[in-house]
Every structure is written in structure tokens, then in C-alpha cells.
Backbone:
């Protein structure tokens, strides 16, 4: 009986993995032009732009640089969920739609999340690497200057 349940679960898992492969979504691929309004409005220099591009825009803009593992169905489902969730909290591509008060609040959140090491999220740090202390300090100085 126990072996039958385990076998059924293994078959269900394999079917889920196979079906997930057909659900790969790489639709968050507009150009970095989608963040231009943000970068202009918030006086983002080349260094800060590089840091944001390498650490933030994948989940918080309309442009994700999908790595090779983004083609693996199960991983892609997980990644797509993080992108959707990230853009719900902060979408740099929608900056021109945000009202001034919301922009300031979002910048305060950027400062807090980076200062408290909540961003980038752990799984992103594992797959892409952590922010260097130099980059973290630069982002904090920039974000504080925009408040």
C-alpha cells in the first residue's frame, strides 16, 4: 500500500514536471527603454543604472534577462511568480504612472529593503550573487538623495 502511494506520487511529480515544461513563460522581455522614465526622473547615473540592471530590473521592470535555467519549466514557474510579485511591489517601468507621493514612498522602500538586506531576495542572491558592499552603499546614498 505504501509503495503504491509513493509510486503514484512519483508519477504525479513527473507529470507535473513534464506539463510545466509546456508552460514556460518568458514574456517579460521589453527593452531597457521601459525604465528610461524612471532613470531620467530620478537622476540615475551610469553606475546606479548598472547596479539596478544587474540586481533589480529582472523582477521590478518590464525587462527580465532570462538565464538558461529560465527555460526549465518548474524553475520558470517559480521565476515568473517572483517577477509578478516583484512588480506588484515596485515596477520601475510604471514609474511615470506613479504619483509623486507614491514615488517617494517607493524610494523609501528601496532604501529600507536594501539597508535591511531584504533585497535582492535570497534566491536571487544564490543564482546571481549578492550586492557588493560598494554597490549597496552607492544605492543607499542614491536612494537617500532622492527622498
Residues:
Amino acid at each position: 500500500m505504501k509503495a503504491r502511494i509513493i509510486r503514484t506520487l512519483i508519477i504525479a511529480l513527473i507529470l507535473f514536471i513534464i506539463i510545466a515544461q509546456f508552460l514556460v513563460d518568458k514574456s517579460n522581455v521589453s527593452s531597457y527603454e521601459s525604465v528610461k522614465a524612471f532613470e531620467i526622473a530620478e537622476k540615475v547615473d551610469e553606475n546606479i543604472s548598472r547596479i539596478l540592471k544587474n540586481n533589480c530590473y529582472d523582477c521590478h521592470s518590464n525587462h527580465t534577462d532570462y538565464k538558461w535555467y529560465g527555460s526549465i519549466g518548474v524553475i520558470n514557474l517559480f521565476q515568473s511568480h517572483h517577477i509578478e510579485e516583484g512588480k506588484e511591489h515596485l515596477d520601475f517601468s510604471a514609474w511615470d504612472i506613479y504619483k509623486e507621493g507614491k514615488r517617494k514612498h517607493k524610494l523609501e522602500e528601496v532604501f529600507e529593503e536594501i539597508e535591511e538586506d531584504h533585497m535582492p531576495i535570497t534566491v536571487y542572491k544564490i543564482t546571481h550573487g549578492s550586492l557588493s558592499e560598494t554597490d549597496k552603499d552607492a544605492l543607499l546614498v542614491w536612494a537617500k538623495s532622492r527622498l
